[in-house]
Specification:
The protein is an alpha+beta fold. The chain has one domain: 4-Layer Sandwich (Glutamine Phosphoribosylpyrophosphate, subunit 1, domain 1). 31% of the residues lie in helices and 25% in strands. The strands form two sheets. A six-stranded antiparallel beta sheet has the order 7-8-1-2-9-10, covered by helices on one side. A hairpin with an 8-residue loop joins strand 9 and strand 10. The longest helix is centred in the last third of the chain and has 23 residues. The chain is globular and about 55 Å long.
């Protein structure tokens, strides 16, 4: 028997994706509750990315990654975990691995809720202003082809917010990219802010700029930094 742990985190919208160029996995998520980055996004290099939300079960992310790492595909892993969760109808989860994209929205998520699964990414949300939130995220991610992967995730998140986002308002946002070549700007959180997605975008650019400055100042010494 797998013990499931639950945390109250509803009114969330997110995207998980696999970068077809680098093979990196990423999650971007926002909600009208504090510290969404502590709960929803889960990702591991070369393994998968998962966002667990609604009446969130963090084990769907934590154990889901472990099951994919030992050989299950993300859809099989998450369905197995959901099958043992007595509260699965309150859960929402999306995931992507090297082969599969998966989405699940339990029947008792708070309206409006839903998910969209595409070839190498998925979006999901609950307690949203309407379906246009997810549609806008899909459009923005597709239209951003050619941009750096983290920025594509953030563009999708911003589009969802502009389309109405969490109908209660805004409070926190997070970006997590799992890469074999990690960077500082791949793991960012805004835990409490009136415009969390805009702040996340600002911090992303600040960190990128500072990284360039370090590289110019210290040159080859940057290679000894292990993230």
């Amino acid at each position: 028997m797998i013990v499931m742990s639950s945390v109250f985190l509803i009114g969330t919208f997110s995207i998980v994706a696999r970068d077809p160029v680098s093979g990196d996995f990423g999650v971007a998520v926002s909600t009208a509750a504090p510290a969404v980055g502590a709960l929803a996004p889960h990702a591991a290099p070369g393994v998968a990315a998962i966002s667990t939300q609604s009446f969130v079960n963090v084990d769907l992310g934590r154990l889901g990654l472990k099951l994919v790492e030992v050989g299950l595909r993300v859809d099989t892993a998450l369905e197995a975990l959901l099958s043992e969760d007595p509260h699965r109808e309150w859960r929402q989860v999306i995931g992507v691995d090297r082969y599969t994209v998966y989405g699940y929205s339990g029947s008792k998520c708070v309206e409006w809720f839903g998910h969209i699964v595409e070839k190498d990414f998925a979006v999901a949300g609950n307690m949203l202003s309407g379906p246009r939130v997810l549609e806008a995220m899909v459009d923005a991610y597709k239209e951003s082809r050619g941009l750096e992967f983290p920025l594509r995730l953030l563009r999708a998140l911003k589009a969802g917010e502009e389309a109405g986002g969490d109908k209660r308002g805004r409070q926190s946002a997070a970006l997590l990219v799992a890469s074999s070549s990690p960077r500082w700007e791949y793991n960012l959180r805004v835990d409490d802010h009136p415009s969390p997605v805009d702040e996340l975008l600002r911090v992303y650019e600040v960190v990128k700029k500072r990284t360039r400055e370090f590289s110019e100042q210290y040159g080859d010494l940057m290679s000894i930094i292990k993230l």
